[in-house]
Amino acid sequence: MTGSEESPSFRLAYVPGVTPAKWVKVWHERLPDIPLTLTQVPAAEAPELLRTGEADAGLVRLPVDRDFFSAIPLYTETSVVVVPKDHVITAVDEVTLADLADEVVFHPLDDVFDWDRPPGEAAFERPATTQDAIELVAANVGLLVVPQSLARLYHRRDLTYRPVTDAPQSGVALSWPEEATTDLVEEFIGIVRGRTVNSTRGRGSAGRPADGGASEGRTAKSGAKAAGKPQADKKSRGAGQSAARQKSGAAKSSGGRGQRARAGGAKPAAKRGKPRKRS
Fold first, then answer.
1. pLDDT digit string, tens, across residues 141-183
2. What are phi and psi of 275, to 5 degrees?
3. Which of 94, 187, 202, 253 is most buried by its number of CB atoms within 10 A?
4. Are 77 and 148 spatial neighbours (Cβ–Cβ below 8 Å)?
5. What global pTM score does this model have?
6. Residue 60, burial from CB neighbour count under 10 angstroms (0-12, 13-18, 19+)
7. Which regions of the chain does DSSP assign to beta strands (E)?
């Protein structure tokens, strides 16, 4: 390696609310010699970070620019309304947007929803961030609709949340510049898709015959032999049984005749009586 060459590494960006820990753990187990660097970035800034090459891939919120990025959708989150614990909404299990019509609902500048029209009454100002809006909810100034992961991320003891059944939903995806689909990006794609380390799409596996195929071939061949052997034995046993039956039948037949002959020869001859005199 020359002085100008850099050791390989993988840089993963992720937006607030997304938890990449389980995938990062698998990465460290499979590629312990290749560092993975995590960078949390606001949802609105993630695309630019990927465009400039400051991250190799990102766990981002949909939608993304499909003319530039590739994306693999991972999951869709439930949308919830964050309210104070003593709010009347806590009396129900879920609400609709219509239930929020008379409430002040904050619409922060980093809102991840693409609203046609934000629900409820407009607040006196738009908070800069979702975290700022959470603080205002805690102050009983208004309510906030967010993906469930953000409600958990900014959880406070004095707040709770309820699902909003007809609110827009936020999808999370693995995304990267389409023209920069490197081997390491492919490795991470395999991890998030749940491929095993021995997957045929893993490193170094292309072109190699699968052991499973050879095993299946050997099993099939052995099975054919095993299947043929009982058939031959069955045929032999059938022929032997038939011959035995014929022999037994013949023995029974000859034995019957011999017994009848011996029985006839052993029977004593009848005595002839004297002729009766006629008077």
1. 999 999 999 999 999 999 999 999 999 999 999 999 999 999 9
2. -65, 140
3. 187
4. yes
5. 0.69
6. buried
7. 10-14, 36-40, 57-61, 69-76, 79-84, 104-106, 121-122, 143-147, 159-163, 171-177
